[in-house]
Amino acid sequence: MKFLFDFFPLIAFYAAYQISKAYGENDNAIFIATGVIILATIIQVVYNWFKHRKVVKMHIITVVLVTFFGGLTLILHDPVFIKWKVSIVNWLFGAVFIGSQFIGEKNITERMMSAAVTAPSRVWAKLNFSWALFFIGVGFLNVYIFKNYSEELWVDFKVYGLLGLTFIFIVFQGIYLARYMSDENTTE
User: Fold this and answer.
1) Please, are residues 69 and 97 in contact by the beta-carbon 8 Å criterion?
2) What is the pLDDT along the chain (188 residues), one digit of tens a residue?
3) Contacts 24+ apart (CB under 8 A), 95-100
């Protein structure tokens, strides 16, 4: 259930966009969807606060960026800001993954996965760097899509393309890591 709630703002954005288009709001669909995603991210953070008395850092970053870029989109009536948000978030993630190589004893990838997989530090460094490249590449791909294709295709890319690319990347990462998983790790 938590997994679905993490995607609540994205699902709400997509639903609002599609419903707006279905009811003839072609020129305003992105603005309606932007307002909905701002509201959905705020609801997500408030809900987590009241339910768990804490908010995940990722949700805080998301609500700040969505509110800022979404707010600019609505105030200036220009969808380019909400489109840039996707790239900026991915570039920030890429920068954090790169920076984690130099801060602390373990990079982010190793911190997140070392409980499940035991691998040499060079493997963690490769995986961490590959995540950084993935996020940076996806950020540039997003810019290419929104500058060269229709808004509707960009919305589909934001929802399906980014999720699909991330899933494929995780599968390849799992295949790469499989050789480092012992029977002891897989039974846990």
Assistant:
1) no
2) 666 678 899 999 999 999 999 998 889 999 999 999 999 999 999 998 998 898 888 889 889 999 999 999 999 999 999 999 999 999 999 999 999 999 988 889 888 887 778 888 899 999 999 999 999 999 999 999 999 999 999 999 999 999 999 999 999 998 988 888 765 544 44
3) 95/132, 97/128, 97/129, 97/131, 97/132, 97/135, 98/129, 98/132, 100/128
* CB atoms inside a 10 Å sphere around CB 57: 8
Q: What is the pTM of this model?
A: 0.87
d(Cα 42, Cα 68) in Å, to the nearest integer?
12
Phi-psi category of residue 182: left, alpha or beta, with phi > 0 → left and psi -120 to 50 → alpha: beta
Residues sharing a CB contact under 8 Å with residue 48, sequence separation 6 or more, in sequence order: 54, 55, 56, 59
Task: Give me the phi and psi of 46, to 5 degrees please.
Answer: -65, -45
What is the C-alpha separation between 105 and 115, in angstroms, rounded? Answer: 15
Burial 12-48 (b: 16+ CB within 10 A, else e): bbbebbbebbeeebeeebbbbbbbbbbbbbeebbeeb
